[in-house]
Inverse folding.
């Protein structure tokens, strides 16, 4: 009788240890899932903000003023009667800059 009681007690103790182990595993997994959920929530908020910005820019793109400004700036269009003054874009990789040898060196390079 005592032997059966000890056997049942040891089985019960092993079962309790097993349950504790499972409980710890579930707790750790739950914590990891909670972290992933927070990261995903942050991504969702960023995507919602980006969507709103894209919708705003899409709405703006349909307006006549935006189309006119874009045509003027990027396509070099003008209205009738307007005079356009264009300035050449300076290439930062050109050898015409006088950063290397100063103004006098730049003038000498232009003269040559």
């Amino acid at each position: 009788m005592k032997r059966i009681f000890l056997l049942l007690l040891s089985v019960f103790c092993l079962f309790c240890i097993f349950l504790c182990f499972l409980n710890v595993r579930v707790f750790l997994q739950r914590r990891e899932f909670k972290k992933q959920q927070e990261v995903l929530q942050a991504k969702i908020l960023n995507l919602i903000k980006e969507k709103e910005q894209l919708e705003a820019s899409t709405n703006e793109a349909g307006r006549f003023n935006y189309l006119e400004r874009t045509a003027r700036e990027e396509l070099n269009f003008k209205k009738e009667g307007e005079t356009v003054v264009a300035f050449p874009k300076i290439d930062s990789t050109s050898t015409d800059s006088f950063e290397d040898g100063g103004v006098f060196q730049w003038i000498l390079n232009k003269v040559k």
Summary: The chain has a mean pLDDT of 83. Residues 2-61 form the longest helix (60 residues).
